[in-house]
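Working notes for the structural subgroup meeting. M.R. asked for a predicted model of this chain before we commit to crystallization trials. I am recording the input and output together here so anyone reviewing the notebook later can reproduce the run.

Input as submitted:
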Amino acid sequence: MKIIFIRHGESDYSFLEEAGYTGFGLDLAPLSAAGRQMATEAAANPLLEQAEILISSSVTRALETASYLIRNRQLPLFVEPFLHEWQVYESGIEKFEQARKLFFENNGSLPAGSPVRYETAEQMKARFLRTLSKYRDYETVALVAHRMLIRQFVADQQIDFCQFIECELKI
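Returned structure, recorded in token form:
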């Protein structure tokens, strides 16, 4: 299956952070003004013409990005809650940054005795493949998701907001 990965647009977390939201609560953040502009411009990407469907994470920033991508197209949209961002099972930005550092230092594995628990690369890949298995009859899908999830399938370490990356995967 050909997958056209699209990272969501830039988010604005400020009002949620000010209200004390953490963890999955931050997934309610909408796109920033710049993120909406990025998504509007991304909608003109000719790669979208190859897609039979658009699949999006149900996280607000991804779903809002997807809404811009399909706005002027006859492209069916499917929303998948298990395409969410990488999970850190602890609250707080400090724990998140610690987990990210450990994730990369350990090539996506969770070391024994880790001071913070998080989803491993293997768990992310398995979650993704399980979710996409119901779409295996499609030849080409566009998919709006998150950088850490996309990184499990593409070598590009720098994945910008609204960047498109083509990838062939066996689903």
